[in-house]
Backbone:
């Protein structure tokens, strides 16, 4: 068609760049919500901003990073607590979650009610959960010590103890979040086809062998997703810790993780520069952990 | 959206809506009840945002940092945030306003509280609630232990607490705040009564003074030896008050402004046996803090300052202060304290304790610095160390060095 109407210039431009144009709203949205805060935090981490972010502040280069990375009083213990909290909580959640998911996998009578009961902690608000356990674990008037008393065990300090506080918060986290792991694993299990299982059974494989060599490898992608989601969440835990131990993670910083520390730096100390530095470092740690997990997964797939 | 594009009335276009942010407090409940009267009088509309103490601080940190104009009147803690807010220029200068009303009478406000709401010679807030530390005690437990009157000195308090705890280990002799930061304010009266202070006359840290070391050892030791079993080091007033009002402690040192929690039968199991006494005397006498705990200020970024001031003027008027005080909230107006009606609803022994405290009281209950939260964690460390049985003197030395660094840092 030689005499096709001439397309106006701007329309041709639109046509040539349409992939950018159509994606633009989403990209602008992401930029506004993700890139800007991140860039701002990065900028603040290079300044000595304190008191008010509108107050004058000086560019101090990497001084904050140097200070934070050499801080063995608050920063490194907080890193240690964050790691301990995440690893221990994750181990229990995945272990228990797997066991419960396998139990709920096969249909049985009253299955629906059992599932609902097990998933209940998941729907409760973490702050409410924190307050509830705080009451239960109160050393003087709490339920936990009364129950222990029936068995002749003396009262325990639980959340009040300098060394028992972190394990207690891990327990609360496990109580609340194991159901989420169950939910994800159960979804994975239900989507598995029965044929490999049957084949293995006919070949005379034991229950353990079937789990180890059939179910687990097939479930691996789902398991990785569960570990990733739960792991990142556990790293960032704030609500439970804040609700049970308050600001600074208790008087001896017993449960002060990186998140609680950064919160205290900006909201109690108004040290926005240092706080941003901790947050950037924390962000890098999370990215590093994610990368390590997904890299292993890719390797396993190869 | 209450941005008034055209007011029509010809005034400066200020909104008819005053946005007020208040803390959870009996004071706030009273104001909310009285609000319709103010709205009818002035034709203004008042929008109240009400938050817990910590959430309130966070809210201010976020909004004022951003220069937000959507807070007009703010309730704040002069000793906790006053210096920081004033330094950041969050608080409007009220010099002109406080002189404007004849009946309102700024000179009626007590001098100590006014000093705490003044920054660089200019009033930036109006004090609304005042506090002194007093001794809460259980009359029945005292009688049972054969004591006729509440302890007048810290030595007597220690002996009485030990005696009561020994008689029945399930009831603590003494309870008080134990959280590192929360305990600082209530510990301050012990510090002053031993003859110490956080900072000496020359602006240097004084935490390692003999008096301070004794005070740390006394406070921590009293809780460790005569306090509740398995005591937590996270207690602020709600937790400590709960132990006292559940009947699990004989003595409790706390701010008088919280007394309703102990005397209200709905909240307290010991409402009919609780008594109040002035803060026991130490080697330096009885020196409780006597401070303004809350004040009202105007956000410097507000575009509605005239109406904001109208609200403050009403909320801090003589009538409102009297009404507040009758419902148990101690105010900052001398005329209301002088008025017999102003103290008619307070327990008689509490009125006496307050009168005694006001004479000898100290005008601060925490270090007077800009970064108060950080300083409280430093000066509070020896308290929790002493409670958990560590050496109080050594902890005070460590804290002293840290506090000096902090003060040097702030002076820069």
Residues:
């Amino acid at each position: 068609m030689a005499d096709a109407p001439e397309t106006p210039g701007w329309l041709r431009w639109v046509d040539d760049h349409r992939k950018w144009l159509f994606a633009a709203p989403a990209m602008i949205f992401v930029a506004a919500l993700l890139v800007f805060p991140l860039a701002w935090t990065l900028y603040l981490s290079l300044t000595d901003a304190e008191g008010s972010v509108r107050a004058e502040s000086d560019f101090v280069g990497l001084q904050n990073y140097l200070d934070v990375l050499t801080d063995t009083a608050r920063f490194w213990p907080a890193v240690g607590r964050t790691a301990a909290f995440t690893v221990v909580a994750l181990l229990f959640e995945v272990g228990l979650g797997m066991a419960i998911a396998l139990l709920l996998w096969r249909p049985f009578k009253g299955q629906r009610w059992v599932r609902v009961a097990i998933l209940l902690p998941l729907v409760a608000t973490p702050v409410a959960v924190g307050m509830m356990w705080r009451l239960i674990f109160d050393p003087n008037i709490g339920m936990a010590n009364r129950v222990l008393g029936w068995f002749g065990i003396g009262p325990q300090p639980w959340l009040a103890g300098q060394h028992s506080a972190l394990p207690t918060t891990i327990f609360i986290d496990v109580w609340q979040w194991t159901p989420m792991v169950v939910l994800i694993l159960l979804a994975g299990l239900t989507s598995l086809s029965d044929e490999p299982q049957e084949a293995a059974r006919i070949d005379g494989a034991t229950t353990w062998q079937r789990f180890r060599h059939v179910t687990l490898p097939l479930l691996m992608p789902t398991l990785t997703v569960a570990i990733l989601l739960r792991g990142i969440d556990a790293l960032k835990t704030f609500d439970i810790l804040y609700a049970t131990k308050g600001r600074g993670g208790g008087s001896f910083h017993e449960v002060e993780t990186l998140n609680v520390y950064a919160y205290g730096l900006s909201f109690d100390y108004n040290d926005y520069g240092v706080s941003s530095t901790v947050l950037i470092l924390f962000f890098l740690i999370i990215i590093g952990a994610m990368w390590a997990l997904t890299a292993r997964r890719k390797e396993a797939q190869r | 959206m209450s941005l008034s594009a055209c007011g029509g009335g010809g005034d400066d276009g200020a909104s008819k809506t005053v946005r007020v942010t208040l803390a959870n407090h009996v004071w706030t409940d009273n104001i909310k009840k009285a609000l319709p009267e103010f709205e009818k009088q002035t034709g203004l509309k008042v929008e109240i945002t009400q938050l817990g103490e910590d959430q309130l601080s966070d809210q201010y940190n976020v909004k004022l940092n951003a220069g937000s104009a959507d807070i007009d009147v703010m309730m704040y803690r002069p000793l906790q945030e006053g210096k920081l807010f004033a330094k950041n220029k969050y608080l409007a200068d009220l010099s002109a306003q406080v002189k404007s009303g004849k009946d309102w009478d700024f000179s009626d406000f007590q001098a100590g509280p006014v000093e705490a709401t003044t920054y660089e010679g200019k009033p930036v807030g109006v004090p609304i609630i005042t506090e002194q530390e007093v001794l809460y005690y259980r009359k029945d437990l005292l009688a049972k232990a054969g004591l006729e009157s509440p302890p007048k000195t810290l030595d007597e308090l220690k002996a009485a607490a030990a005696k009561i705890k020994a008689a029945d280990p399930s009831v603590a002799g003494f309870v008080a705040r134990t959280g590192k930061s929360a305990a600082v304010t209530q510990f301050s009266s012990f510090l002053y009564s031993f003859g110490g202070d956080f900072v000496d006359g020359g602006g240097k840290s004084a935490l390692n003074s003999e008096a301070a070391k004794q005070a740390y050892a006394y406070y921590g030791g009293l809780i460790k030896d005569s306090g509740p079993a398995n005591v937590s080091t996270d207690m602020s007033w709600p937790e400590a008050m709960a132990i006292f009002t559940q009947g699990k402690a004989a003595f409790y040192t706390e701010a008088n402004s919280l007394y309703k929690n102990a005397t209200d039968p709905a909240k307290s199991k010991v409402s009919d046996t609780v008594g109040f006494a002035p803060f026991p005397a130490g080697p330096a006498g009885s020196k409780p803090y006597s401070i303004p705990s809350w004040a009202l200020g105007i956000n410097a970024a507000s575009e509605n300052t005239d109406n904001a001031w109208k609200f403050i003027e009403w909320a801090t008027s003589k009538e409102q202060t009297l009404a507040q005080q009758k419902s148990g909230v101690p105010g900052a107006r001398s005329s209301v304290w002088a008025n017999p009606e102003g103290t008619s609803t307070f327990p008689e022994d509490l009125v006496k304790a307050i009168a005694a405290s006001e004479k000898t009281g100290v005008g601060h209950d925490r270090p007077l610095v800009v970064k108060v939260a950080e300083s409280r964690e430093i000066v509070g460390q020896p308290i929790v160390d002493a409670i958990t049985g560590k050496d109080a003197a050594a902890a005070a030395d460590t804290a002293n060095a840290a506090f000096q660094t902090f003060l040097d840092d702030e002076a820069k």
User: Anything to note?
Assistant: Chain A has one domain: 64-301.
